[in-house]
Design goal:
Helix 5 runs parallel beside helix 6 and helix 9 packs across helix 15. The protein is of the alpha/beta class and about 450 residues long. The chain folds into 3 domains: about 70 residues, Nucleotidyltransferase, domain 5 (2-Layer Sandwich), CATH 3.30.420; about 140 residues, Rossmann fold (3-Layer(aba) Sandwich), CATH 3.40.50.280; about 170 residues, Nucleotidyltransferase, domain 5 (2-Layer Sandwich). The protein is built from 16 helices and 15 strands. The strands form 3 sheets. Strands 3-2-1-4-10 form a 5-stranded mixed beta sheet, sandwiched between helices. Strands 6-5-7-8-9 form a 5-stranded parallel beta sheet, sandwiched between helices. Strands 13-12-11-14-15 form a 5-stranded mixed beta sheet, sandwiched between helices.
Length: about 450
């Protein structure tokens, strides 16, 4: 297969001459590939398009299709095709370092498919292998604290013969990281070192591990999923899609100078993102693990198609009312993930399913993760943004009501935002903001301009 003739390298946006100021910003999703043509000087979105993701043949077919007509423009992309980034956590204590790594993994755009805590044994290795990870995040001990479990688990992983040469990101006790990395590398394991995710009790340091996970995703995962035979695909992808969205949320909060909550209702998962200024305060350390100021949770049992039936089960556990016809409708969707409602009655059922998925996902995001831990403080959230096809394809009056029901859910067990603006990211601009923000100084202004447009278009502004 031929690669894209106009493909530019990672640094190409910074090296374009003054006449070449446009770029395609592309999200290769599991169902649809979406593209925006952006003026990287002004942040103007010139045009948009989308097409079904061509995973069954080659994802670059869809990328070419959706970017046709502007062959001279370079492409930057994110991807969640092929299941996104599957991450396994191997830590020391489940409620301390493993929990810290779990939160960091989610914030890095990963789907955490397994968490192992304590000393790995033969059964633990079998469970790890069965979860089919793309990457292993190995953590354990605060800096200068316990090192024995981290070293023991490194030995086990070195002997495990992980499938497809799965890379290991080492982000544990800094006192033994050199020895751990040397051990793994010596056994032929692709190893990336990062700063400890939990250098001290109550302090999560996510940035280094997030960067290492992104590096591992780009270097070892994207090319290994069989999504494309074209080497150009690996060249255009900068990060996993959820990582791009979280970066977009960070910029949006900065531009709006308000806390932000985003609910992304997808076909397989419902993801919730929040950026909260309170956790910028270094004196706020009420829990053993602590809270991330930019956080993401992934609810793999809450999806509009593949996992629709699981939404009904989760609603029952949450004691949320479900209409009589919804269970049958939800049960029919897993076998037809591209299905669109064919009548007003089905539209109403689809919106009810979305409301349940969003409500449960936000409850889980905001509630305390463990006994004794405080709920996530979302009381100062000023912007609530919805995302996903089910919200984008329905009238604003219906989607606005859906989102407002989520943030007025007094039975959820979490403190509610006081008076947020509510809207839907109908043009998938958060991904555009997040990808542009990572493209160097030249594109920072464009990222902020797109974020400002998103804020300006919110109802009530």
């Amino acid at each position: 297969m031929d690669s894209l003739d106009s493909l530019d390298s990672l640094d190409s946006l910074d090296s374009l001459d003054s006449m070449a100021t446009i770029a395609w910003v592309v999200d290769v999703g599991s169902t649809f590939t979406k593209a925006s043509l952006v003026d990287v000087a002004s942040g103007e979105v010139i045009s948009r398009g989308e097409t079904p993701t061509t995973s069954s043949t080659d994802v670059m077919h869809g990328v070419r299709s959706v970017t046709a007509g502007s062959a001279a423009a370079p492409i930057i992309a994110c991807s969640s095709a092929g299941g996104g980034l599957r991450l396994v956590i191997v830590g020391y204590e489940r409620t301390v370092t493993a929990e810290a790594a779990y939160r960091v993994g989610l914030s890095a755009g990963a789907k955490v498919v397994h968490v192992a805590a304590g000393r790995l044994d033969k059964g633990g290795i079998a469970e790890l292998r069965a979860s089919s990870p793309d990457i292993v995040l190995l953590v354990g001990g605060t800096d200068g604290g316990n090192s024995e479990v981290l070293q023991h688990n490194a030995v086990r992983l070195a002997k495990a013969k992980l499938p497809r040469r799965v890379p290991v990101v080492v982000a544990g006790n800094s006192a033994v990281q050199d020895d751990v990395c040397a051990l793994l590398s010596g056994a032929g394991v692709a190893t990336i070192r990062a700063a400890n995710v939990l250098p001290d009790i109550g302090v999560i340091a996510p940035d280094s591990a997030r960067a290492a996970l992104r590096e591992a995703f780009l270097t070892h995962v994207i090319g290994g999923k069989g999504l494309s035979r074209d080497p150009g695909f690996a060249e255009i992808v900068r990060m996993a899609t959820p990582d791009a969205v979280l970066e977009g949320v960070r910029v949006l909060r900065e531009v709006a100078d308000q806390d932000v909550l985003v609910v992304d209702i997808g076909g397989a998962t419902t993801d919730v993102y929040s950026s909260v200024h309170r956790y910028d305060d270094p004196t706020v350390r009420p829990e053993v693990v602590g809270q991330l100021r930019h956080a993401r949770t992934v609810e793999a049992d809450l999806g509009m198609r593949w996992n629709a039936a699981s939404v009904i089960d989760a609603a029952a556990r949450e004691r949320l009312r479900v209409s009589d016809n919804l269970p049958r409708y939800a049960g029919s969707l897993a076998s037809r993930p591209a299905y669109l409602p064919q009548s007003d009655a089905e539209r109403d059922l689809d919106l009810e399913l979305a409301r349940l998925a969003a409500t449960i996902a936000v409850r889980r995001h905001a509630r305390a993760a463990h006994p004794g831990e405080a709920p996530r403080d979302l009381t100062e959230v000023g912007i609530v943004l919805g995302s996903g096809g089910v919200l984008r394809h329905h009238p604003a009056e219906l989607t606005d009501g859906l989102l407002r029901s989520v943030v007025t859910d007094r039975a959820g067990g979490w403190p509610l935002p006081r008076s947020p603006l509510v809207g839907v990211d109908t043009a998938y601009l958060l991904v555009v903001v997040g990808l542009l923000a990572q493209e160097g100084e030249r594109c920072h202004g464009a990222a902020r301009a797109v974020a400002q447009r998103l804020v300006a278009e919110l109802p009530g502004r």
